[in-house]
Specification:
Blueprint: H1 16-21, H2 28-31, E1 36-40, E2 43-46, E3 51-54, H3 57-60, H4 69-80, H5 93-107, E4 115-118, H6 123-138, E5 143-146, H7 155-159, H8 164-168, E6 177-180, H9 192-201, E7 212-215, H10 229-241, E8 245-249, E9 273-276, E10 289-292, H11 312-326, H12 330-353, E11 356-360, E12 363-367, H13 371-383, E13 386-387, E14 389-391, E15 397-400, H14 408-427
Helix pairs in contact: 4-11, 5-11, 9-10, 12-14, 13-14
The chain binds pyridoxal-5'-phosphate (PLP).
C-alpha cells in the first residue's frame, strides 16, 4: 500500500492565534484548517500525524517537490560557508553561477538570447518590470491582456488581471489595459486572434496601439485554458506588425509544468519578454526574473529595483535545479510520461461523468460545472489526504498541480482519490459530506 490516509485528528487543534492575530485575508487555510510541520518530496505533514499528498505544489512553486535533497544540500553548504545572503544587486559568486548556468543549461540549448533582470522576488514584480519596460521602450501606454488572465496583485499587474474580485481590491481605477478574448473564449469557431488583428488594423476600433501583448500560454488561475500554438504564433505576429512587444507570463506554466523549461518551446515564436517566478528557485524560495531581448535593455541604472532583487539563496537552489533537472532531456521525458498518464486518467473521469478536461502537460484539471461541486471534491480529497485546489472564473475547475518529480504509481494513487471524490460529489446532494 503506497498511500495512507492521514490519521484522524484526536482533538481539535488550537487555532485561536490565527483568529486573533492573522488578517482575515488568509485564504488556503480556510479549506485546509491544519497546522503543517514538515514536508519532503510530495508529502506534507501536519502536527496531528496527518500525511498529505501534495497536488497543489504551492500553485506550481514546488515543481521539484518539497525540500529536494540536491537543492537542500546546495543551500545548506552555501549557508555553512557563510555565503552572501543579501547583497542588493552586487556581484556575488552565487549570482555568477546562476547567470552562467542560465546561459549554458537553459538559454543556449534553446537558441534564446535574453538579458536577465532581477526584480523584487515575487511574480507580480516581474510582471511590473515587463510592462514598465514595454511602455518605456515603445512610448505607448496601453497593454493588451486577456480574459481570465492572472498576472499578480500589484497595481500594474492587477490591471492586467481579469478576475473582478481581485481587481476590486485595488481601490483605484485600473486602467491602460484592454482585456481581449483569449483563445477559445468565443467557442471553437471564432479565432480571437483574428478579432484582435481586425481591431488593431481598424483606426476607428477605439483600441489604442499597444505597448505590449501580455499572455499566459496556459491560464493557471483563470481556469487552465490553453492557447494553441497557432493562436500564439498569430499573437506574436500581430505584436510584431503593430509595434508591440509580446510578453509571455511563464510564472506558473514555466519551469517544466507544461513540459519544457519554457511553456512556449517548440511553438515557432520567441517572446520579446518572459516573466518567471514560482518554481524558478526550485525550492519555494522567493525569486523572480524578467527576461528580454538585449536590444530592449534600455533601463537606466536603478530605474526599476527592489531591496530583495537577486535572492542569493534562491540563486543557489535555482542553479542546483538547472544542473540537476535540465542538463539533459531525461527530466522532460519523465514529465511527458506523467503528463500522458494524467491526461489519460482525467479523460477517463470526464468520459464517465460527462465532464470536460482542461490544461496541458502537468497542468491539468477537470471542470466540475460549479464552484460548489468543485469545493465538495477538494474537501473530500483533503479528508483522504490529498491537497488539491480549484481554478477558474467560478472556481469550478479542480486542478491537479502534482510535483513534477512524483512517482508514476503515486500520481495514479492520488488520482484514484480524486476520481472517488468526484464520483461521490456527483452522486451526493451538494453539502452532504463525503463518507
Ligand atoms: C502566481 C502568478 C503571478 C503572480 O506571482 P506572485 O509571486 O504571486 O506575485 C503572476 N502571473 C502568473 C501567471 C501567476 O500564476
Amino acid at each position: 500500500m503506497i498511500f495512507t490516509r492521514p490519521k484522524p485528528t484526536s482533538h481539535a487543534p488550537d487555532t485561536s492565534i490565527y483568529e486573533r492575530r492573522e488578517s482575515v485575508v488568509r485564504s488556503y487555510t480556510r479549506s485546509m484548517p491544519r497546522q503543517f510541520t514538515r514536508a519532503e518530496s510530495v508529502w506534507m505533514h501536519d502536527n496531528q500525524g496527518g500525511r498529505y499528498l501534495d497536488f497543489l505544489s504551492g500553485c506550481s512553486t514546488l515543481n521539484y517537490g518539497h525540500n529536494h535533497p540536491v537543492l537542500k544540500q546546495a543551500l545548506l553548504d552555501y549557508i555553512a560557508g557563510d555565503g552572501i545572503t543579501h547583497g542588493l544587486d552586487l556581484h556575488t559568486d552565487a549570482k555568477a553561477d546562476f547567470l552562467n548556468t542560465l546561459e549554458q543549461v537553459i538559454l543556449k540549448p534553446r537558441g534564446l538570447d535574453y538579458r536577465a533582470m532581477f526584480t523584487g522576488p515575487t511574480g507580480t514584480n516581474a510582471v511590473e518590470a515587463a510592462i514598465k519596460l514595454a511602455r518605456k521602450v515603445t512610448g505607448r501606454e496601453m497593454v493588451i491582456a486577456f480574459t481570465n488572465g492572472f498576472h499578480g496583485m500589484t497595481l500594474g499587474a492587477l490591471a492586467c488581471t481579469g478576475n473582478a474580485a481581485k481587481r476590486g481590491g485595488a481601490g483605484v481605477p485600473l486602467n491602460h489595459v484592454a482585456h481581449e478574448p483569449y483563445d477559445g473564449y468565443h467557442g471553437p469557431d471564432v479565432d480571437t486572434a483574428d478579432l484582435l488583428e481586425r481591431r488593431l488594423a481598424d483606426p476607428s476600433s477605439g483600441l489604442d496601439a499597444p505597448a505590449a501583448i501580455l499572455v499566459e500560454t496556459v491560464q493557471g488561475e483563470g481556469g487552465l485554458n490553453v492557447a494553441s500554438p497557432e493562436w500564439l504564433r498569430k499573437i506574436a505576429d500581430i505584436a510584431k506588425r503593430h509595434g508591440a512587444l509580446m510578453i509571455v507570463d511563464d510564472i506558473q506554466a514555466g519551469c517544466g509544468r507544461t513540459g519544457g523549461f519554457f511553456s512556449f518551446e517548440g511553438m515557432g515564436f520567441t517572446p520579446d519578454i518572459v516573466t518567471m517566478a514560482k518554481s524558478l528557485s526550485g525550492m519555494g524560495l522567493p525569486f523572480a526574473l524578467t527576461l528580454f531581448r538585449p536590444e530592449l535593455d534600455q533601463w537606466s541604472p536603478g530605474e526599476h529595483n527592489g531591496t530583495f532583487r537577486g535572492n542569493n539563496h534562491a540563486f543557489v537552489t535555482a542553479t542546483a535545479a538547472f544542473r540537476h533537472f535540465w542538463s539533459d532531456g531525461r527530466f522532460q521525458e519523465d514529465i511527458d510520461r506523467r503528463a500522458a498518464l494524467l491526461e489519460r486518467r482525467l479523460d477517463a473521469i470526464a468520459v464517465e461523468f460527462g465532464l470536460s478536461t482542461r490544461g496541458r502537460g502537468m497542468m491539468r484539471g477537470i471542470d466540475l460545472g460549479s464552484g460548489e461541486t468543485a469545493a465538495t471534491v477538494t474537501a473530500a480529497c483533503f479528508d483522504r489526504g490529498v491537497i488539491i485546489e480549484t481554478s477558474g472564473a467560478h472556481d469550478e475547475i479542480v486542478k491537479v498541480l502534482a510535483p513534477l518529480i512524483i512517482d508514476d504509481a503515486l500520481l495514479s494513487a492520488g488520482l484514484d482519490i480524486v476520481e472517488r471524490s468526484i464520483r461521490e460529489a456527483l452522486s451526493a446532494p451538494i453539502g452532504v459530506a463525503a463518507e
